[in-house]
């Protein structure tokens, strides 16, 4: 039995005829090594925007069902062109739209969720030696309506197909060559990781290392699909996202993620009674504002302080909401700060190493960086600091934990 | 029961967002009169060529199945945009791709033939008051592969849908406002006909009045679908293509069609024995040359003359082929002429009017036009003349038969 590899190429990787031909060369090379290959592609970059622009010219809020009908054509063109390029290279290939694949989704147009994939026909084609080329981002509901999965949905399509086929690996080709210990623009010695766990990747992704769609990572973890992030433009092994193994336990910290565009809000001196936290958060969520970190410390004199962070764009609105609810709750005061940044150490190894947090805080103290909030999970320690110290703090921690060295 | 109208808009009628909005206005106006409407649309003009060009850049002979997958996206974008424009005008509407309509075709990619249409879902939607917007030019085969009907196939799609729905009328919107008695560029007094029969339209279409696809007219005749040709850009009743009725029998000649790019070839003095004609034509068809008119007169001294016409581009090749077969058949000589034109009078009324041919020949003689070949059918008289007399002959006949007058 040959290995089944699912490869996903995004919009910039298939941006024009020349790039599509380069992808065909890459796919052929992988097939010539004896692998069975399913390729999932996005629309040529710019194409989806061009179509959406025409639709919005007609109606700023176009009918969601029809927007999906229009948008789905972007990937349909790419699958045909790539299949033609493969056949021109003597590689037997066949394209599948979301409908033809029976990529069954719910009926939430523009943001559908995958329910099931009927992999039988694809499996037959693979056994007959064909390369399968699938339109990402799109599916079909029970009634035969065309649906799309929302921006970045092609990653999810690829993982779902890999899960249905029990593929040996799902390779996501992008414009970066892997996942780094932190942003190389901030820390020049940042190192590409060979491996990272699903949990770590989720923490890294949600914190701004936007290499992969979070949904795709969750999906891959749930269905045990090994994911690999690679560059479409350079050769290299990329980063494998997989389950924890013995080798990886030795690595304590995998990377440092950070987020610049947050703001924090604090309600001071509210009664320490049940229901207070939910009343505060309800005032926020009623305004469709998403909350990121939430910290509440123990009570003092029967009152407590409640702090959370939101996206900086939502700061003013959240502050207004808090001032109203603060009065109702007889809070002492409501304060906020827009000039903050969040920084997180991520690593599965930290579970068994109690000293990580103290070392982190010590490094920050040595650099004169004051910690305004702390929040921890099993595999992550996050702190809120003044945004002006962010780069300094990231570099100091990257050095202190020797992340530039491959361990 | 409201009338069911199928409207078809070609590529220039939906060339951009503004034109699509104008089509939406036209559709809404027709629906507001109480009609049930199915709209069939082509790709925005230029779109199919753009896609084919990319495919041919990759492979001059792209896989036919994949070319269909790519080309079908053109109409898919149009149906979505038009449906969005209708809904923006408060008209409840729903788009259908060829697959969603179950427009079943054979598997001849790039030139598929329609086998069946499952109209049930469309009928339900029409009954619920929706306008149905269908992608022309495309279908699906038994295996679920996307097929296309070949250039101009959208006319055929519209007629097929009209037949399946037993529509009251199938309206083909184009850039001309109807079918004329002859080409208005040659005869300024040429008149738009209110009605023409299917048979006349077939003769007119095949002779160069390229308003409608021949296949669509044949289809409409076979399934008794009244066809109407109208302008998308101007108001007007266009031309209704329908069955012969009493009123129409009074009209003897409907129109004058002509063709400039023909050439004639003659084999003189071949033995008048069975099998000679087929041997001559086989030599031509073996070279994939299509033959138009064929004329053979009675024998004389045991030999006969055999003449036929081909497209002017095929003249040299046909002449070579004839010279070879002429020797085998001991023909006296092989001659040809590239400087000819074909001119035809068309009209169902001529069946019962023996005098038409003699009047036609007399008019031509008065103008000094020599007739080189004559061929007739039930509703058509065609002559081959020197091409330099073509415009003169068309004008003289148009006057003589008073075609500028509505009878």
Outline of chain A: globular
As a percent range, the share of strand residues of chain A is 25-35%
Our count of domains of chain A comes out at 2
Number of helices in the DSSP assignment of chain A: 13
CATH class of the largest domain in chain A: Alpha Beta
Task: Characterize the quaternary organization of these chains.
Answer: homodimer
CATH level 3 topology of the largest domain in chain A: Carbamate kinase
Mean pLDDT of chain A: 90
Major sheet details of chain A: 8 strands, mixed
Across the major sheet of chain A, the strand order is: 3-6-2-1-9-11-12-10
CATH architecture designation of the largest domain in chain A: 3-Layer(aba) Sandwich
Helix content of chain A: 25-40%
What would you report as the Rg of chain A, rounded to the nearest angstrom?
Answer: 24 Å
Q: What structural category characterises the helix and strand content of chain A?
A: alpha/beta
């Amino acid at each position: 039995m040959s290995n089944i590899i699912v490869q996903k190429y995004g919009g910039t990787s298939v941006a024009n005829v020349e790039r599509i031909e380069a992808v065909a060369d890459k796919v052929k090379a992988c097939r010539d090594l004896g692998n069975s290959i399913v390729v999932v592609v996005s629309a040529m970059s710019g194409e989806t925007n061009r179509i959406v622009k025409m639709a919005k010219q007609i109606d700023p809020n176009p009918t969601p069902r029809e927007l999906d009908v229009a948008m789905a054509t972007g990937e349909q063109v790419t699958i045909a062109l790539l299949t033609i390029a493969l056949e021109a290279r003597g590689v037997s290939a066949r394209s599948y739209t979301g409908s033809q694949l029976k990529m069954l989704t719910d009926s939430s147009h523009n943001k559908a969720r995958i329910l099931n994939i009927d992999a039988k026909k694809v499996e037959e084609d693979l056994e007959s030696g064909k390369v399968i080329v699938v339109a990402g981002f799109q599916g079909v509901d029970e009634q035969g309506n065309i649906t799309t999965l929302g921006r970045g949905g092609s990653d999810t399509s690829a993982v779902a197909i890999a899960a249905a086929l029990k593929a040996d690996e799902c390779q996501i080709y992008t414009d970066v060559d892997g996942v780094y210990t932190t942003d190389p623009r901030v820390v020049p010695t940042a190192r590409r990781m060979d491996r990272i766990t699903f949990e770590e990747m989720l923490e890294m992704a949600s914190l701004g290392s936007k290499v992969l769609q979070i949904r795709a990572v969750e999906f891959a973890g749930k269905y045990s699909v090994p994911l690999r992030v690679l560059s479409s433009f350079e050769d290299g092994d990329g980063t494998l996202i997989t389950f924890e193994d013995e080798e990886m336990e030795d690595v304590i910290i995998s990377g440092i993620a950070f987020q610049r565009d947050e703001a924090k809000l604090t309600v001071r001196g509210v009664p320490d009674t049940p229901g207070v936290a939910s009343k505060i958060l309800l005032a926020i969520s009623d305004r469709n504002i998403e909350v990121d970190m939430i910290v509440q410390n123990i009570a003092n004199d029967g009152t407590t302080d409640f702090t959370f962070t939101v996206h900086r764009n939502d700061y003013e609105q959240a502050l207004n909401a808090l001032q109203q609810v603060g009065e109702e709750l007889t809070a002492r005061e409501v304060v906020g700060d827009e000039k903050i940044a969040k920084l997180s150490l991520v690593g599965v190894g930290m579970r068994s190493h109690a000293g990580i947090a103290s070392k982190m805080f010590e490094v920050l103290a040595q650099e004169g960086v004051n910690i305004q909030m702390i929040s921890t999970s099993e595999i992550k320690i996050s702190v809120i600091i003044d945004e002006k110290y962010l780069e300094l703090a990231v570099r100091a921690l990257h050095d202190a934990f020797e992340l530039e060295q491959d361990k």
